[in-house]
Amino acid sequence: xxxxxxxxxxxxxxxxxxxxxxxxxxxxxxxxxxxxxxxxxxxxxxxxxxxxxxxxxxxxxxxxxxxxxxxxxxxxxxxxxxxxxxxxxxxxxxxxxxxxxxxxxxxxxxxxxxxxxxxxxxxxxxxxxxxxxxxxxxxxxxxxxxxxxxxxxxxxxxxxxxxxxxxxxxxxxxxxxxxxxxxxxxxxxxxxxxxxxxxxxxxxxxxxxxxxxxxxxxxxxxxxxxxxxxxxxxxxxxxxxxxxxxxxxxxxxxxxxxxxxxxxxxxxxxxxxxxxxxxxxxxxxxxxxxxxxxxxxxxxxxxxxxxxxxxxxxxxxxxxxxxxxxxxxxxxxxxxxxxxxxxxxxxxxxxxxxxxxxxxxxxxxxxxxxxxxxxxxxxxxxxxxxxxxxxxxxxxxxxxxxxxxxxxxxxxxxxxxxxxxxxxxxxxxxxxxxxxxxxxxxxxxxxxxxxxxxxxxxxxxxxxxxxxxxxxxxxxxxxxxxxxxxxxxxxxxxxxxxxxxxxxxxxxxxxxxxxxxxxxxxxxxxxxxxxxxxxxxxxxxxxxxxxxxxxxxxxxxxxxxxxxxxxxxxxxxxxxxxxxxxxxxxx
Length: 587
Hints:
Layout: E1 4-6, E2 13-15, E3 31-37, H1 52-62, H2 66-69, H3 73-76, E4 85-88, E5 91-98, E6 103-108, E7 143-144, H4 150-154, E8 160-161, E9 172-176, E10 182-186, E11 188-189, E12 192-193, H5 221-224, E13 227-228, E14 231-234, E15 237-244, E16 249-256, E17 263-270, E18 289-290, H6 296-301, E19 306-307, E20 318-322, E21 328-342, E22 347-362, E23 369-372, H7 380-384, E24 391-395, E25 405-409, E26 421-424, E27 435-436, E28 438-443, E29 446-449, E30 463-465, E31 472-475, H8 476-489, E32 494-495, E33 505-507, E34 519-523, E35 526-530, H9 532-535, E36 536-540, E37 543-546, E38 548-551, E39 556-558, E40 566-571, E41 576-581
Parallel strand pairs: 16-23, 17-22, 30-39, 31-38
Antiparallel strand pairs: 1-2, 3-15, 3-25, 4-5, 5-6, 5-12, 7-11, 8-9, 9-10, 13-21, 14-15, 15-16, 15-21, 17-23, 18-21, 19-20, 20-21, 21-22, 24-25, 24-40, 26-41, 27-30, 28-29, 28-34, 31-39, 32-33, 33-37, 34-35, 36-37, 40-41
């Protein structure tokens, strides 16, 4: 058996050619990985019964709170809470979450009463409900209120407190309604969470829309030796295949330029998402090695997420990532070998790569792993950096395309040739994200300047370019100038928006692009023309809506719909992002 040669943890792991792993000479060409759309038949999430509109609707709902990831909490705090109201046989319900971690519940909206109450476990004689009861024992912020508190006293003015027991110091209440039904229980302090206006259920729509990339350059010897990892579309999300451990174990993860850690579900895993393939078992890998709490990798988590090095009995680095919808992943940070398939069928391996082994989490979105492509210290790009010259690129075809695509690294990722424009990467408020400078936008020939001021997210970089956000978000002041100009140049019949986050919708023309102006994003040094098929999409039969939407806090997110049919290259050495108009389905 051939001997494997592993350089440092930042270098490639190579072997003799007859082992099927690339040699050092072949690695100089970079490599490409295949992207798989969430809705592709190759995806584990593929559901042939879903209509395109159902897929679109589901995709929007998966990206509920991504905006909050990109902006400081001080600015996020300016956002107004919002809770959906739902009619129920003449009564109205609203959604909110209670406890830590948040547990979603519904309650009847009633301006004629004051107490917020809900059914809790254990509950004797309670009403049937289709969702589970809230369990206070599973919340870290639940705290019963004592009988001698002002909150308990206040019940005497409107309802009834039952502080008669010498054995129980907690405040008990009872509310008797006019039909003689009643509720009684314990008064307690708890955390209530409401979705925010900017947590619109928008961005995920094609959150993983990195669809169909091919090799850019002629097939030189180097390009023929480049590794490949398949990326599969999955309801607006994009997945990529790779292998982990020794021997290599194939897994999939969602591709995300807005995060950094590479993590996956591992055995044993409490509360993990269902997946159609087995979980990775670290005990069966000879190269799995937990990372200690005093390592630089563990320290790097403090800048973006959270490490949990609080146990005297466990020296290993534990991590937790809490997303804005309050779902989370937590587990052990470890070194492991990542292996990518090659275009020629051979493979390339990266030893001692920091990964998150998720063993206890709560996810409603069926995410079973993430491949972080951001700029953070533990991201795939940062860790592979010198070996790929800190370059990667992708191309996003029209979101309804079912084909696979490729994510290119190294020399394969160079974007050049006729029509290519480049803009500098800028500093921003979060090191993980890729910030650009947007100077203005044009609707047809009418240019609207973006004016920086003290409320802008950053005087240097004001726009995040993100593969994981579907729509493009523009801060209020700028959007207020953009939308009227779009309206002025469209002569189609205006219709009511089917979703609250779209403010500009029209009856579909016979040809979806007829009568819709081209919109140009003017980045510093680069004019990127957006096709009508990306700025207006059909969200239901015969209804198209504007995919650039209002953001009620300062900031801009350039989403993946706007990136469709561009080959987009990131060069972190030159600090540039390049755009080349490309039919991504023909690469």
